[in-house]
Amino acid sequence: MVRSPQSCLLAGLFCVALLFAGCGSGETSTAGGISLQLELADGTQIDEVSYSITGNDMEPMTGSIDTSAPGSTASVEVYGLPPGQGYQIMMTALSADGETSCSGSAEFDVEVGVVTEVMVMLRCKPSQRLGGVRVNGKLNLCAELIKAVVSPLQTSVGSSIELSAQASDLDGDETDFAWSGSGGSFADAGAAATTYTCEEAGAHAITISVSDDGFVHCDSNWTVDVVCVDGAGTGGSGGSAGAGGEAGAGGDGGSAGAAGAAGAGGEGGAGGIALFPPDAVLLNFSIDDTANGTYDASDGLAWKGSFNFDAATRELSYDPAWMGPYAMLFDDGPWSEGGHEPRGATAGDGIWGITVWTERPAATITLAYGAIRGSVDGSDGEWIWIGSNETVDIEPDSEEVTAPGLTIPAFGTIDIRWELDLPSIDSSFANWTTLSTVAIKTSVGGFRDIAMVDDGTAGDQTAGDDVYTMLLSENLGKHEGLRKLGEMIDFVLVLDGIEYRVGGVASDAGVTVSSDAADPEAVTLKQSSLLQIRVGPE
């Protein structure tokens, strides 16, 4: 709107109107801006609006607008501003209850004799009424059950079953163990290793659970079925009474003699545990670890061969494909006393064994076999048998057969060094310059892959000379040690994940083996499906 000045003064007339963000509906003024009810949508009352005009090197001009009366508007017209650009008006307001504050600003220019209309939007904000929450999330990787061993899977009422479990927690949290079962009791249901005592005959289920949060959200578990049988079989019945003796013949003139008294009945037979069918052939097998004593129930020793094994019934069946499951070994005493081992065994003596049964064959059956570790409930594991596979014959008239077992040699003091000169490997196998990994499998190490290195560490004498080395003493596991004179060690090298064989035979091209024995040449190398060394003279 333009107004004529009433005198010849170089002055400007300022008119300002106000909008409140969030206000209710208003009424429009006919001059100088917009008239509003100064009541916010929530009923908050504004009684006064303050303003300040600055800019163009002018002394700030301030004032306030009384909006308390009904119908008052937050508008003002100010006269006396020098013409110029870059003025600013700042308007502020505070609600009557002091809980809501409003503010807004706008820029404008002043011309001589002209009223500049400026619309200022005041934005009103109530005082802080709400609180907040700061949440810091923490990730937890639940503990995982990685091994559970239950042995034996069948025993008599009153006898105990050995239990052990292992867990892994990648966060390093403390792990809780919890065993549960039916028909028996635990020595310590919260321990990683404990025992379960059969209290009634029948099928039982033993469950192990692990958790790192008190079993609130994390629970990794496994259940094993076991059988508890009566501790004694039925005693044999007593023998029949003997017949009475014949009466003696009468003498001349004498009477006949009385008949003899009946003989006493025989005693009843002693009771026993009836685990095997009456016409079964029993098979015994064992591993002797008394020299080193490194194995326990968690290591999963098992008898592996051309058969499969049913742990619930202890029946072994011929299977030329070696598909398993295999027979777990135990150190819990003889089967005749509630354990698994052959008769006469002693629990806890470091000799791990089992007695199983098989149906009587119509013709001779030959079982081939060896031994493994790391088996879980009869699964496959690391091969630890030394030498060629062993065999045992089961004849049609066999009653009880003991298969030749494994005696784990005592550790010695001789270190063994294997070396492979890559430029000297068999040319028909691979281009040695393209190889990226070299490893070795040995009967000492359970035929697991052990890296050979050419970096001057772990026994390698010169880094980067293309001679890869594995020094035994630098790669010993729990069940491995230095060797003794007279031992045989089977091995094969592995190049880029492929066994180093030519024509199916383990190659010795580029391979050298030595020891730190008194005679440095006291290692004999033989070549077959596997390479074999003898530590010391033949």
What would the keywords be for this entry?
single chain; 538 residues; mainly beta; 6-stranded antiparallel beta sheet; 39 strands; elongated
Description:
This protein is mainly β. It is built from no helices and 39 strands. It has a seven-stranded mixed β-sheet with strand order 5-4-7-8-9-1-6, with no helix packed on it. Strands 30, 31, 33, 34, 38 and 39 form a six-stranded antiparallel β-sheet that branches. Strands 19, 22, 24, 25 and 26 form a five-stranded antiparallel β-sheet that branches.
Topology of this protein?
Layout: E1 12-21, E2 27-28, E3 34-35, E4 46-55, E5 58-66, E6 76-81, E7 84-95, E8 100-110, E9 115-126, E10 144-151, E11 154-156, E12 160-168, E13 176-181, E14 184-186, E15 193-198, E16 202-211, E17 220-229, E18 281-288, E19 302-305, E20 307-310, E21 315-318, E22 327-328, E23 351-358, E24 365-373, E25 382-383, E26 390-394, E27 400-402, E28 406-407, E29 416-421, E30 438-442, E31 450-451, E32 467-471, E33 488-495, E34 498-499, E35 501-502, E36 505-506, E37 511-515, E38 523-527, E39 531-535
Parallel strand pairs: 1-9, 11-17, 18-27, 18-28
Antiparallel strand pairs: 1-6, 2-3, 4-5, 4-7, 7-8, 8-9, 10-12, 12-15, 13-16, 14-15, 16-17, 18-23, 19-22, 19-24, 20-21, 24-25, 24-26, 29-32, 29-37, 30-31, 30-33, 33-34, 33-39, 35-36, 38-39
